[in-house]
Design brief:
With 190 residues, this protein is α/β, with parallel strands linked by helices. The chain is built from 8 helices and 6 strands. A 6-stranded mixed beta sheet has the order 2-3-1-4-5-6, with helices on both faces. 39% of the residues are buried.
Length: 190
């Protein structure tokens, strides 16, 4: 099997590390060689955060280079645009339509580029966009955006739904399991 490369991109504090743990553990349980690498920007300050997950029969490195990503899971629109150069020609971007202002926008030096997703589509990228924030809130917490996005990613994998749910049950604090299972289902069925 060829190596499959996934990038999980977002802003600090959005739960990308839990998402990568759910995905990484699931893939290990499926018998794949899995490499996960976390790259943090100013994550505590709302800066860009990237996690790489690569899996296959034998994976040499966790790092995804430009043009190698089969999937980019983006927790925010600008982050999708920032990392689009890493997408393979036939890759897919799953993106939360939420807008989180970066520091230049907050300070008034720049404006938020609202046509980001249309520009990605016009460039030929496959963009699967969903309002993951609203779905997370529907599940019970805005903090469940990460699991909504994992639910959406699961649609592209041939791994049983219940195996994803098992990982959520293993990795999420017991008092938040039902909320996260609901968030996963909402992303999966969106």
């Amino acid at each position: 099997m060829n190596t499959t490369s996934i990038m999980i991109v977002g802003v600090g504090g959005q739960g990308s590390l839990l998402a990568s743990r759910v995905l990484g553990n699931l893939l290990v349980d499926e018998g794949y060689d899995v490499k996960v690498s976390e790259v943090h920007g100013m994550s505590q300050r709302g800066g860009s955060v990237v996690t790489y997950v690569r899996f296959g029969d034998k994976v040499a490195s966790p790092i995804v280079e430009d043009g190698e990503a089969d999937f980019i899971i983006s927790f925010e629109k600008i982050e999708a645009a920032r990392w689009a150069k890493c997408l393979k020609k036939d890759g897919k971007i799953i993106v939360n339509t939420q807008e989180i202002d970066p520091m230049p926008v907050i300070t008034g030096v720049a404006q938020y580029p609202h046509d980001v997703l249309n520009e990605l589509k016009e460039s030929g990228a496959f963009v699967d966009e969903l309002d993951a924030l609203s779905l997370a809130e529907q599940a019970g917490s805005s903090k469940a955006v990460n699991i909504v996005l994992m639910g959406r990613l699961a649609k592209y994998f041939h791994i049983e739904y219940e195996k994803w749910i098992n990982q959520i049950e293993k990795l999420v604090a017991p008092k938040f399991v039902e909320l996260n299972k609901k968030a996963f289902a909402l992303g999966y069925n969106a």
